[in-house]
Design a protein that fits this description.
- A two-stranded parallel sheet has the order 1-2. A two-stranded antiparallel ribbon has the order 3-4.
- It has 15 helices and four strands.
- It has a single domain, classed as Amino acid/polyamine transporter I (Up-down Bundle), CATH 1.20.1740.
- The chain has 364 residues and is an all-alpha fold.
Amino acid sequence: MLNETKNKKITLLQAIFLFLTAIYTSNIRFVTKLSIMYAHQAAWLVSLCSMLVFVPLLYVLYKIMNKFKGQSFFDIMCRVFGKTIGHTVFIIQIIWLFILLTLYVTYAGEKLVSSTYVGTDVKLIFFLFLVIVGVMLRYGLQVLCRINTMIFIITVSQFMLILGFLFTDFSAQNITPISTLDIGPVFSTIVFPLTTFSYFSFIFIFNDQIELGKKNKGKFAFVAIFLTIVNTLKALAVLGVFGYELAKKMTYPFLQAVENITVFSGSSVLDSLFISSWGLQEFILVCFFAYCICRMIKHVFKLTSQTPVLTAILGFCFFFAVCFCDNIFELATFSEKVVTPVNLMLAIGVPFVLFITAKIRKLL
């Protein structure tokens, strides 16, 4: 059940896989599109440049995680900031994570209705999707991570296969020329990959359930290297096939590039497989946020069980998802204009402030 005991822990690598699977669709939907829109043919450099901020964030999280080993993020914040400020920041994060949960449930429902279940009432999709999430989470974090490991392997394998086909139509002219004039657009665009990369901070909400082990630096480095390579290759593949002028007009450039793949002069089934795995990745994303919220509420209100909280969260999420946005374009605008700055403040700004405060108070 969702009630976790101290001996039911996951490894750091399992937590990392959970994070990487959770943000996969967000990167395709959000990062690739906006990187191309604003950085044009230099979009493939955006994720690499974002490491100038993300790597220091990883260092900060690594230091905090190792110093406060076995403690929840809530306990760490209360110890460093004090109870009043710690509770306040944590409650703000709970509210924001619930908004993100609603956003991604809406995204998932709209995508399924527009691609697979055309003509189906989106409310029914929301309901069924959240019921499945609720059933999954009742088995706890360990089971979720085991299932996610299989989904992660499928995702990586499929991604490599798709890239193999996409790069057969790659045109180097579409990613050149690169000049000093691209420096400004590239560095102003790094906020978009950082918006999703910053979700790595949220795995420390259940830091008390993660078995760290002794050698962790390589695992943190793996996160940075993996995200850089995958997102750079996504941008290169889309630019190489379409060019930025055409790609920036598309809703989901990478998905439309997959749909453009042909095998032996015939239509490919890769787009169907891609949509199927997309649903699994969206499922992991929603499970990730729902579990984080449950865990946070349990810590704030000192509850013994998370199951009633989960039911309430998913119930409220259904009603808010129905009212959230009317179409995919409103969701995209909300993601760009609202999600980006708030994520940067709460998922990047808070860990840095926590680290600096802990240093000042000599807790690190």
